[in-house]
Each structure stands twice: as C-alpha cells, then as structure tokens.
Amino acid sequence: MATHVHDHQHAHDQHAHGSELSETQLRVRALETVLTEKGYIDPAALDLIIEAYETKVGPHNGARVIARAWSDPAFKRALLEDASKAVRTMGHESRVGDHLVAVENTPQLHNMVVCTLCSCYPWEVLGLPPVWYKSAPYRSRAVKDPRGVLADFGVKLPKETQIRVWDSTAETRFLVLPMRPGGTEGWSEERLAQLVTRDCMIGTGLPKNAREIA
Amino acid sequence: MDGVHDMGGMDGFGKVVPEPNEPPFHEPWEGRVLAMQRAMSYAGAWQIDMSRFAQERLPPQIYLTASYYQRWALAMEKNVVERGFVAPDELAAGHALREGKSLKRKLTLQTVREAMTRGSFYRQAQAPARFKIGERVRARNIHPPTHTRLPRYVRGHVGVIELVHGCHAFPDAVAIDKGDDPQWLYTVVFDGRELWGADADPSVKVSVDAFEPYLEAP
Predict the structure, then answer these.
(1) pLDDT above 70: residue A7
(2) Model confidence at A141, in pLDDT bands (50, 70, 90)?
(3) For labelling, which of A149, B132, B141, B216 has a CA lying 20 to 30 Å from the CA of B209?
(4) What percent of chain B has pLDDT over 70?
(5) Is the confidence at residue B199, as pLDDT, over 60?
(6) Considering the domain A59-212 in this protein, what is its CATH number?
(7) Among B19, B45, B151, beta carbon nearest to A116
(8) Mean pLDDT calculated for residue range A111-128
(9) Whole-angstrom Cα distance, residue A127 to residue A134?
(10) Is there a contact between A40 and B210 if contact means CB atoms under 8 Å apart?
C-alpha cells in the first residue's frame, strides 16, 4: 500500500473529522479486502495507479502542451483544431482520450472551466482536480458569478474582457490555452513551461510573470 | 434527477478556498478509493454515469457533508451491492463469503498502462445531427427523475450551437442500464443575461455540452 504521512494539520471544511474518518478508513479497507478476495481487483495494480497519479500525471503535462503551443505556431493550430490528436503526439503517461478541447484566451476573451454536476476535469493533462474545483462554492458560483470567483483567486480582469465559462457536462474536457506572458521572447519550451500554472489552464489564474522565475 | 449535485447557480456556499501546494491525496484511503473505482470500471463492472448516478442518489445531507472521496466510496458500495458483485453481509464482515461473479477482464500490473488511457465515448450515429453550428436552440424544460447531464440552470433557456462533438453514448440511458443509446452532442452557449436575468454581468457567456434529446427548436 502506498504510504503517506497523515497530516493532522490539514482540515478543510469538507473533510470529516476524527472518528468519522477512521470509520471511512475501515469501510474502505473492508471494501478493498472483499473485492480482492472475490477476485475482482489486484491490490498491487492499485498501488501502480496511485503511484501514477502521485508522480507522473499532473499539471506539468499540461504545462508542456501550453509551452509548445506558445513556441510552435503549427502545434498551436493543431491543438486548437483537435486537442486530443495534438496532445497524443506528446506521449504522456496518462494518454489522452478522444474528447479534449483547447480553448484560447485572447486580450478580448477569458475562458474558465467548471463541472457544476460533478468533477469533470482533464486528468490526462492536469492530473487530479484540486479540492476547490470539486467543492460546492466553485461548482455553484462559477457559472453565475465568474468574476467573483476570479476575485477569490486574486484575479481581476478588465470590465470589457468577455468571460466564457465552459461547464463540462459531458465527456468533453476543456484545457485553457492562456496568453503568453510578455518579456519571454526567445525562451525555450522548458523555460516557458515554468510559467504555466495549473490554475491558468483551468482559467482561474493567469500564467506567472516572466520576472517571477529565475 | 433534481438533486443537490446540480449546483450551478446556487447561492450560499461561500468563497472558493484554494489550498496551497495541495497533494493529490490527503489520506492514503483516498488513493485506494480512486484506484478501486478505476479497477472496477476497467473490469466492466459499471460505467462512469452509473457511478455518478449512485452519488446523486445519496441522501442530500450526506452528499453535502461527505468529502469527495467519501462520496466515491459510498457510491462504490452502492454499485457493488446493487449490481450483485458483493452482498451486504460481505461488506459488513469485511471478507468475501461467496465466490465472485465473473468480469470481462481484470486490472493487473500488466494492464495498468492500458487502463490509464481514457476510453472513447464516440458511438455510431443512428441519424444525422438535427442541429447545425450557429443555430438557436432551447434547452428543454425536462425533469427526469433519473440521471441526466442537463443542468437545471439552462433548462427553458435559449442558446446557440457552437460546436458539434459527434455522436456519444447517452448518459441518461447508460446510467439506468438502457445501453448506449447514442446521441449527438453539442456545445450550446448562453448569454449570461439569458440565464441570470437583465441585471447579470453582460460580459459573461456560459456553455454546456448538451445531448440532442435535451434540445428543441426555440
């Protein structure tokens, strides 16, 4: 079984406390034991799945996609044309399915992605969604008050900027292609990728400033 | 179903609170739950909309107070029992008391990589697409008591077809074991004021991905 340090400091609202948590642990263990004994699952294979999500599948994959789109106009066109196909050429651990769509931010338009009904998220390029993405505050407000949600993230856009919210209600997954920050002319893809945050690929953040990285 | 999971546009949940340097899992059991879910769906035990529907059927007070992976675990318990893979006495005992059913395949060390690839939801179209890009459509005012992916906040409202995604398995049918029932899938974009009234921010547009049976001529 994968090992972690139990973080007692950690307490966000949605987590159960003390005794409930241990009840959950016991129930999950019971479920895994039963499913294993009945021959449905192999715990060693589960370890590998967990390891992949902890170490290989994450927003660094999406950051490489964005950095390439910023540096290679042909790749950018291909990405906006058919993101599944374009991303598949990059050979990530969690290979992308058929339904990825990239949406481009411009000076006039800011894109933001949500799943109001559950937690749909482009795992292959961003890894597992953060707790806030799956939380009631984000799911309820993103479609009604996106500027208010952006303010929660410290992002303020000009009044004239059009905001487009993509509610992921089917199996289509959306990846935001943010605008390339100024002052990055001639940067390598590797260096550009360091500017790409997870949140700027969801649309709740902007890429880092060129001065923020060494 | 018109459940608490359909949260778009609800007030009162407060601010979004991002967690700095958030780990993939906060507790080891969360990873076990995710991986079990992955393994059981790879094995063909159920499909994703059956998991979603199982979560939606949790009592509202449980849905709203359980953590994300607690909901997954509760939905998985529901699915293994309802679909006859495990009996309640086995869950209570924490051990298998009978032999397992046979499954299509099993997630093993050798098949993990394959299982990490997301499946395709494309299906063979049964008819040509009814709507075209640029066409105005109304989201139907429907309230199916079972699983649906048409959120309440767009029902009855008029939007514009922006993308046609091809023909996909239809979640409303899949979730209740009625097969794939393939349907055309569209991105439909709505003006913020159409959804939220004249006082809403005029710079906002919101889209949903809507299956053809959710839409009608305006």
Answers:
(1) no
(2) very high
(3) A149
(4) 100
(5) yes
(6) 3.90.330.10
(7) B151
(8) 96
(9) 13
(10) no
Please tell me which residue in A71, A84, A120, A168 is annotated as part of the active site: A120
Residue B141 lies in a domain: yes
- Give, for B42, the enclosing helix (H) or strand (E): helix B28-42
Residue B111 sits in the same domain as residue B144: no
A110 in Cβ contact with A163 (< 8 Å): yes
Chain A residues close to B26, C-beta within 8 Å: 7, 10, 15, 131
**Taking phi first (over 0 means left), then psi (-120 to 50 degrees means alpha), and beta for anything else, what does residue B184 get?**
beta
Q: What pLDDT is stored for residue A109 in this prediction?
A: 98
> Which CATH number characterizes residue B66's domain?
1.10.472.20
Residue B9 resides in a domain = no
Range of the domain at B45: 28-115
| Complex ipTM | 0.97
B interface test, pick of A7, A38, A197 with most B CB neighbours within 10 Å: A38
Interface contact flag, A167 B196, Cβ < 8 Å? no
B33 and B101 together in one domain: yes
- Nearest residue on chain A to B27, judged by CA atoms? A6
A135 is catalytic: no
Q: If you ran DSSP here, which 8-state letter would residue B122 be given?
A: B
Count of domains forming chain B: 2
Q: Average pLDDT in the B136-148 region?
A: 98
For A172-181, the pLDDT digits (tens) are: 999 999 999 9
pLDDT, tens digit, 9 for 90 and up, residues B44-85: 999 999 999 999 999 999 999 999 999 999 999 999 999 999
Instruction: Tell me the chain B residues in contact with residue A98 when contact means C-beta distances shorter than 8 Å.
Output: 118, 120-122
Beta-carbon-side half-sphere exposure of residue B196 (alpha carbons within 13 Å): 20
B104 is a domain residue = yes
Helices A18-37 & A43-55, crossing angle to 10 degrees? Answer: 130
Q: Is A200 one of the catalytic residues? A: no
How many Cβ contacts (< 8 angstroms) between chains A and B? 303
